[in-house]
Specification:
The structure holds 2 protein chains of 2 kinds. The two termini of chain A are about 25 Å apart. Chain A is elongated. Helix content of chain A is about 35%, strand content about 15%. The longest helix of chain A has 27 residues. Chain A has a 6-stranded parallel sheet with strand order 3-2-4-5-7-6, with helices on both faces. In chain A, strands 10-9-11-12-13 form a 5-stranded parallel sheet, with helices on one face. In chain A, helix 3 runs parallel beside helix 4, helix 3 packs across helix 14 and helix 9 packs parallel to helix 11. By secondary structure, chain B is an alpha/beta fold. Chain B is about 40% helix and about 20% strand. Chain B contains 4 helices and 3 strands. In chain B, strands 1-3-2 form a 3-stranded parallel sheet, sandwiched between helices. The termini of chain B are far apart. The model of chain B has no long low-confidence stretch (mean pLDDT about 85). Classes of the chains: A alpha/beta, B alpha/beta.
Amino acid sequence: MKSDKQEKPGQITLTAGGAVLARMKAIGIDYIFANSGTDFPPIIEGLAEAAAKDIDLPHALIMPHENAAMGMAHGYYLATGKTQAVMAHTNVGLANCAIGAINAATEHVPVVLMSGRTPVMEKGRLGARTVPIGWGQEMRDQAALVRESTKWEYELKFPEQVPDVVDRAYAIASSVPKGPTYVSLPREVLCEPCPGDQIDGPLRMQPVPVAPPQASVEAAADILANAKNPVIIAQRGTGTAEAFGRFGDLVDQWGIPVVQYWAIQLAIGTEHPMFAGMDPAPWLKDADAVVVIDCLAPWSPDIHDLRADCKVIQVGQNPLYSRFPGRNFAADISLVGETGDVIMMLADAMDRRHEDHKSVCADRRNKVAETNAETRKKALAMADAGAVDPMSKAYVSRCLSDAIAGRSATVFSELGCPLEPLSLAEHSSWYQEPHSGGLGWSFPASMGYQLADKDKLVVATMGWVLYVCQPDSLPSDCRSVGASDPDPCSE
Amino acid sequence: MELPILILVLNNNEWGAVRQSVTGMYPDGFAAKTNEMPLTALKPSPDFTKVAEASRAWVAKAKRAEDLPGILRDAIKHIDTNRTHALVEVTIAP
C-alpha cells in the first residue's frame, strides 16, 4: 500500500546509486542478487532512501558468494525468461562472478552484471578513498575480468547517465543472441545526485528479436521433408512450452528420431516414441539430413562420421557460435533466432509439405519407434541393474523418477543423476550444467528457479564435490533483504 | 524466503568425470591400471549432512539401494509439509 505522501521518482533527486536500482525496477528487473562491499554505501543509502520515499525497487537479495548470485540469476531466467541483475564488489567481487558469467554467456542467459569501481580520489570528494582497499582494488582494466563473456560493457561516468546506461545494459543483454552485459559503477559517481525525472517510464531501448529469412526456413523444410534418414540432435530444449508441444507432434508425424546428446535442457519427453536416446552414432552414419537444434557440439567429430552428401541445418540464437574460436561443424543452412520461434516457423513449413510424404513418414515412424523402444528398454534395464550396493547414478535417476512422478517438477543435474533413465515429459523439467563447465552452478541455479516458481518441486542432484564447493549457496535460502519478507530464520 | 529444494548429493569419493576422461584417452595406459588414479581420489569426504544441518536442512543418508525410494518419499513429504530444503546423501559406485 502506498501512502498519500508517496513521492514519485520524477519529483525528487536520488543518489545515482539509488537511481540505478529504481530504474532497474521501472524497466522490469525483479531481483538484484547482490554481494555488497565498500563500494556499496551510495547503493545501500539509495535503497534506504527509496524505501523511505515509497519508490518501487527490485528485491535485493544478499548473497554470501558471487558465484551463488550469478547462479540464481541464471536459474531465475530459466524459469521466467526475464533478465535479472547481479551486483558485486569492485574487482574482487567481479572476479568471483567470472565463472557464472562464462556459464551465462555460453547458455545465452541474459544478466545485467554490475560492480563498483574503487574510488580514484584520495581525498576532497564525497566517496573518495577512506580505507586501504580503496588503493588495493584499483585496476586499469577491471572489465577485462569478464570481457569475453559479456556482449557489452560500460563505465558510468556521470550520474545523469544512469537511466540510459541501465536501459542499454538491459536491452543489449536481452537481445538475441542473449547474454551478460557489464556495467562498472565508480563510487564517486554513485554518490552524486541523479535527477529522478528519467527513472519512471518504460524501457526506452527495446530488446531486439531476431528471426531467419522465410526463404531459409523453406529451404531447410525442403531438405528435411525430402530426407530418407533425417535425424534431429537437440541439446538445449525447444525454448518454449508451446514449441515443446509442437516439436513433439512434428517429429512424431514425420518419424524423425531426436537424439538428446549431452542435453542441457529437455527438447522431447523421454518416453516419447521419437526420443532416440543419448547416442547419435547409430543415426549419423546413415543420415542424409541432420537438424541441429541449439547444440554447441552436436556430435564428436573424432568418432562420428557423416555421409558426404548429408545436409546439416543449424538452429540457434548464434548458429555458428561465433563467441567460440573453434567450432567447425557443417552448416548448410543456418536458421537464426530463439529456438521456440524457429521451431514454430519450421513446423509451419513442414505442415505445408506433409501431404506429399504421408505414407513414407508413417513407415519411417514405425521403424524409428521400434528402434527407440529397444534403446529405452536397454537404458532402463541398465539403470535397474544398478540397484546394488553401492548403487549406480542411473539407478538413483530411476528412483528419483518414481518419487517425482505425477507432479510438477524440475531436475537440475551437475554430474548428478543422468537424464536417460528419468521419465520426464514436460518442457522446463530438466537442466544440466552448461558446456562451459563452470561447476558450482546447479545448486544456486535451482534456487533461482525455485524463487521464480514456488509451487514446483525443484530437485538439484550433484556429484558430492560440487555440493561442498557450493556452501556459499546454503545460507542464501534463509535470508532476505526485502522489508516485507519475514525472515524464516528468526524465531 | 521459501526455497525448499530437494538436494541429492551423489557421493563416490572421487572425481568421476576426471577418471572417465583419463580412461577415454588412455584406455590401456598406466593410469587406467592403477589402484588409485592420480588426481582423482577425494577421500575422506566430509559428512555433508552436517554441512546441510548447519543451514537447518532436513537430512538423510541413503547407503543401500533398497532404502533410497523410501528416503526420497520422506524427503519430499518434508518439503511439502515444512517448506524447507532437504538433503539426501547417496552412496554411489565409483
